[in-house]
Specification:
The protein is mainly alpha-helical. It has a domain of 144 residues. The protein has 14 helices and 3 strands. It has a 3-stranded antiparallel β-sheet with strand order 1-2-3, covered by helices on one side. A hairpin with a 2-residue loop joins strand 1 and strand 2. It is globular and about 60 Å long. The termini are far apart. Belongs to the SEDS family. FtsW subfamily. One of its GO terms (molecular function) is peptidoglycan glycosyltransferase activity. Keywords: Cell shape, Glycosyltransferase, Membrane, Peptidoglycan synthesis, Transferase, Transmembrane, Transmembrane helix. One of its GO terms (biological process) is peptidoglycan biosynthetic process. It is a multi-pass membrane protein.
Length: 408
Amino acid sequence: METLFRKYLKGDTTLWIVFIALCILSIIEMYSASSTLAYKASNHTAPLLRHVGFLTGGVLIAFAVHLVPYKYIRIISYVGLIISAALLVFVLFKGHSENDAARWLVIGGVQFQPSELAKLSVIIVAADLISRIRDNKKDEWIYFRNTVIMLLGVCGLILLENFSTAFILFVVVFIMMFIGRISMKYLGSMAGILLVSLFIGYGAVKAIPEDSMPHMFKRAYTWVARIERHSDKNEKASKYVITDKNRQEIYGQIAIARGGVFGVLPGNSVERDYLPQAYSDFIYSIIVEEMGLIGGILVIILYLILLFRAGQIATKCSSVFPAILVIGLCLMIVIQTYINMSVATSLIPVTGQPLPLISRGGTSILITCIYFGIILGITRQIKEELPVEEEAPEMPEDTMPVVELESL
């Protein structure tokens, strides 16, 4: 196994193990969680085979990407940013709607989310801009301004249909700027403007009737309703009544409760047949139901290992760009993970965030695999840049120095 990793799978061995473990867990749980899709399909194995196909393609993409020097990824990201911004505009007018949100494009029979490509491009470009900041205060303001303009432009396009994705991307880039030592006065002003904007937006939704609101902003009423339903403490009597609005949360809680400590074992889930989006947004509930508390904690540990290793990798980078990039990509995976888990455990309102690498979804899987590929590629280059320690040559016995002893 060690020879395999050294010969073919370059980069950090621990990250490869985490990556492969998540892919295997995804296949096992998707086999169970996609039962409703299998029932509807003419071929009962089609949903699972589709998922395995995306994972296989994702692994191959990760392998290919981890062989590409990050200096080329740095250049390509600007092209990706332009393309993703154009697609985000296009999806607002020609997007395919699911769950009352137009987030998908269907081109040539292939459905994908432009926001996933946008997240990847923004993180790489932000890492590049932050890394260009020098001690000169003028340089800091120029690159901070450019980063904020890019971030607000992309997040604004994503926000119209997907608040949680836009918010996560904003937070990740904000943390990247903090780690990149952007002046606190800039970051403080940025955070203050965000809070004021959220307050004004919430007030506008409460004050303006939905019929009078422009169509592109009507998605905001769904967000506000979810937040208020989640935070309403006066509905103690009705929270045990399953309705169309709380169906996901209630069945998610039931699935977690059934899991106990050891779970009912993979393939024996009951709530998968009742829980909407059991194979996507609420797959963590199915994991806990089938693998119990132990399995749920194991999944959390895998993502924590990723976060811990990313921190270690960043400290070993010889320049700022790869260090900031590793942190940004890892944070995007981990923050999205724990938001998904928080939704499944009813800690926060429903957001629609998938569990990276585990939930069903072609675009999300492929882009997440690119995240891993870039991180593994950076660790590969770090290993190659390390000087090889030369071993001291062994001296033959007949050339060993002779130490003369003084005669007594």
